[in-house]
Amino acid sequence: MNIQRFIVIVAAIAINVAVLASFHGSRGAIVGDAPPPQRTQNMPTLPVITVRPTAQQWRELGRTPAPAASA
Fold first, then answer.
1. What are the respective helix, strand and coil percentages of the chain, to the nearest 5?
2. How many CB atoms sit inside 10 A of residue 16's CB?
3. Cα end-to-end span (Å), the chain
4. For residue 38, with 0-12 CB atoms within 10 Å meaning exposed, 13-18 middle and 19 or more buried, which class applies?
5. Percent of the chain clearing pLDDT 90 (strictly above)
C-alpha cells in the first residue's frame, strides 16, 4: 500500500469523525435550548361508525341475521 494512500484514508476518517462529533454536539445544544412542551389540546376525532348489514345482505351471504340485543 502506498504511504500517500494511507495518509489520505487516515485524514478522511479523521475529518468524518470531526464532522460527526460536531453534529452530535450541535444536536445536544439544539435539544437543550428547546422550550418545554405545551399542554396538549383535545383534538377533534371522527365518531365511531357501526356498520350493520341489512337482512337482504345477510340473505345474499347465505346467513341468517343475529337477533337484536335488547338494551
1. 55, 0, 45
2. 10
3. 85
4. exposed
5. 20
Residue 53: name the closest of 39, 43, 66, 40 by CA.
66
Between 62 and 32, where is the model more confident? 62
Distance (Å, whole) CA 11 – CA 14: 5
Mean pLDDT of 33-59: 80
Here the cell at position 9 is: 484514508
Question: Which is it for the CA torsion 54, 59, 63, 65, positive or negative?
Answer: positive
- pTM greater than 0.70 (yes/no): no
Average pLDDT, the chain: 79
